[in-house]
Structure prediction request, 137 residues.
Amino acid sequence: MENLLEGAYLAEGTIGNVGMPGAPIATFSLVVVPSQHTVSGTVVITQAVNGPDSHIVVSVKGKIYATGFGQFTQVVSLHGQYVQSFPPPALGAFLADFDAHFAIDNAWNGTGGFSYFNHQIENVPVATAKKLQEQLA
Prediction:
């Protein structure tokens, strides 16, 4: 049996309008296994608002594929679930879905979007973490 993790690497970055006040930002840290077309890891959604949507941690898994053409050489999809609290004055929580999709170049820069409880963010920048940029250079 061949090495199932051949070519695996760590990808870190953000999805969203970083620097825009109040904009939700999804920060990702993913183990990518191109030979298996899989990604898995953690996404942290932050937003400068009070309440349950200000800091959400989601375990995710998904797929990565080469496009074979154009500026964006790869497409990625992610899915996960997290515990979402009801907004006050209600009590309780439920499992909410998180989904993300993006088209990126080989340096993990591009465009995409993500959705989570009552939020849909589309056509926002995807940017690699600065330390990853240095590793890929």
Remarks:
- The longest helix spans residues 130-136.
